UniProtKB/TrEMBL annotation:
Residues 63-74 have a biased composition (Low complexity). GO terms for biological process: carbohydrate metabolic process; peptidoglycan turnover. This is beta-N-acetylhexosaminidase. Residues 39-78 are annotated as: Disordered.
């Protein structure tokens, strides 16, 4: 793991000095240089791809897309220049306290009507909002909502985009259902192990999000899972091998950026090795820093080194850093991220409405604690209005410094301006429109083709007879499989009718014994105790995954995936 302690401390010293200067109104300190070569806002040559992750061309970080003076404006690892960041801090410092206090909050709201939250964005200066399943009724409604949120930000005079966010990881965490393309779980990406396939799938998904008006997706999950003892992350993880998780999470982030959508690498310092769900209560991570550096922190260190714009802080108490305090509220956790790893991007909290931080704290208290510790963006406080007021009161009382608040808001402003430039470039290379939504089926299928894994059974030829009996999975999954079987020419026998083979689908964590073929559609651990002669890990229940599964069962294509986690006696890497 490489670190950048010396370089980071130099930048932190410079940055804090500049933030204080901006706070004092010394706007003349901020200089955005302009070069003369290379118009990065121009459309790339035909056939070229958007800029790769961590390899940002000069000028990409500036709102105008023009070339900054590289000599006077060193570039941050994730894209913008130090001058861009200084401008963001100065702009935050110029805001009234009441506005800057709102500019670090991403709110959650109830139901499909976004009128009230849009008013709060305008009136209170909120950074933006995140959409969950209860906010969504259809594609047209989503597009109307995201436009309403964007307009609300423009109405208050800000010169940067609103945060319009979603959790669209794939698998069990997809807030946007059909007709948005459904993807398998992130464990499928780990099973595929192909960075190009993963990146292209991520770009396709993010293109749909951009077409729907989103600016941010809270993915990828960079947690290294410990297996069945991990009750929270499970199939959301790319696997149990730290280096492999780092590679795949990096490819996912790159694809998202290719499409102009900001990714958030989560959940620092790693949620895959704790056995308590932070949605309910606070997990405790008892590993030493050295142990974390050898496992959980590997993907996050890699994300920093390759230019991640945003890292999500998990609600996990690291005993070695600050016992009993969630990393999301812990100054030592942020210090490790900034000073040991050298991160210069935006640190966003996990949801502040989760049980891991709400217990024993008054409304707004977690927001103040997070900012004071080093957070830049506050995700879903229990009460956004109360959180904003608590921030205002904390600055007034001296509990939270205005300079720290301006630093946080300045990073968010800089990131959102950079996102606008990324989206503009992506539109030049891969235009999107209403018809883009639902168009990523081939990318989802390609990911599934690379992921489906045969643990036991022959690797070539048919694994079932011409007529199968389908057992397990529930009615919805069976219906979806039957549709895939019809598309693939496989006959599913009616209940009670004769069949050549029995295929047993398992969607949960409880193994159902029996059958000729056992298929795990979520975590593969259920296959350990299955007595079926053929065991398959599919990692999803979306149409693409089921189409691949049918093709593998019929012997029409090989199973290319390999286990990203150990399943009993089957080690990581098991497959054809």
């Amino acid at each position: 793991m490489t670190t950048a302690l010396g370089r980071t401390m130099t930048r932190r010293t410079w940055f804090l000095a500049l933030a204080l200067a901006a706070l004092a109104g010394l706007a003349a300190f901020v200089v955005v240089g302009r070069g003369e070569q290379g118009d990065v806002g121009a459309a790339p040559a035909p056939g070229s791809r958007p800029v790769p992750y961590g390899d940002v061309p000069e000028g990409l970080g500036t709102p105008s897309g023009e070339e900054p003076g590289s000599a006077s404006s060193p570039r941050l690892a994730w894209g913008p220049t130090e001058a861009d960041l200084a401008q963001g801090v100065a702009d935050a410092a110029a805001l009234p306290l009441e506005r800057v206090a709102g500019s670090v909050i991403v709110a959650r709201y109830a139901g499909p009507d976004a009128t009230a939250i849009a008013s709060q964005i305008t009136d209170l200066g909120l950074a933006g909002a995140i959409l969950f399943g209860d906010n969504v009724t259809g594609v047209d409604q989503v597009r109307t909502t995201t436009a309403q949120l964007a307009d609300a930000g423009a109405a208050d005079g800000r010169t940067w985009p609103v945060v319009v966010a979603v959790d669209q990881e794939g698998g069990l965490v997809q807030r946007l259902g059909l007709p948005f393309t459904q993807f398998p779980s992130f464990s499928a990406a780990g099973a595929a192990g192909d960075e190009t396939v993963v990146r292209e799938a991520a770009e396709a998904r993010a293109s749909e999000l951009r077409a729907a008006g989103f600016t941010m997706n809270f993915a990828p999950v960079a947690d290294v899972t410990i297996g069945p003892a991990d009750p929270t992350i499970g199939s959301r993880s790319a696997g149990s091998a730290p280096d492999a998780v780092a590679r795949i999470a990096g490819a996912e982030s790159a694809g998202s950026l290719d499409a102009g959508i900001l990714p958030a690498v989560k959940h620092f310092p790693g949620h895959g090795s704790v056995t308590v769900d932070s949605h309910a209560e606070l997990p405790v991570q008892g590993a030493s820093t050295a142990e974390l550096e050898a496992r959980d922190l590997v993907p996050f260190a890699d994300a920093v080194d390759t230019g991640a714009p945003m890292i999500m802080m998990g609600h996990i108490a690291v005993t070695a850093w600050q016992p009993g305090v969630p990393a999301s509220l812990s100054a030592p956790a942020y210090a490790y991220l900034r000073e040991s790893l050298g991160f210069t991007g935006v640190a966003v909290t996990d949801g502040l409405d989760m049980g891991g931080v709400t217990a024993g704290r008054a409304p707004g208290q977690a927001s103040v604690e997070a900012l004071a510790a080093g957070a830049d963006l506050l995700l879903t406080p229990v009460d956004s209005v109360a959180a904003r007021q608590a921030i205002i009161d904390a600055v007034g009382s001296g509990t939270l410094s205005r300079a720290r608040l301006d630093e946080a808001a300045g990073r968010v402003i800089t990131m959102m301006r950079w996102q606008e430039t990324l989206a503009s470039r992506a539109q030049d290379t891969t235009p999107v429109g209403p018809g883009t939504i639902g168009s990523a089926g081939s990318a989802a299928r390609a990911l599934s083709d690379a992921a489906v894994t045969v643990l036991t059974g022959q690797c070539t030829g048919s694994l079932v007879g011409d007529r199968i009996r389908l057992v397990g999975g529930g009615s919805a999954v069976q219906e979806a499989f039957a549709a895939a079987a019809e598309r693939g020419g496989l006959v599913v026998a009616a209940p009670g009718a004769a069949a050549d083979s029995e295929v047993r689908l398992v969607t949960g964590t409880t193994t159902a014994l029996g059958g000729d073929v056992a298929v795990a559609l979520d975590v593969p651990y259920v296959l350990e105790t299955s007595n079926a002669p053929v065991k398959i890990a599919a990692y999803g229940r979306d149409a693409g995954t089921l189409d691949t599964l049918v093709a593998v069962l019929r012997g029409h294509q090989p199973a290319l995936g390999h286990l990203p986690v150990a399943v009993g006696a089957y080690p990581v890497g098991t497959g054809c």
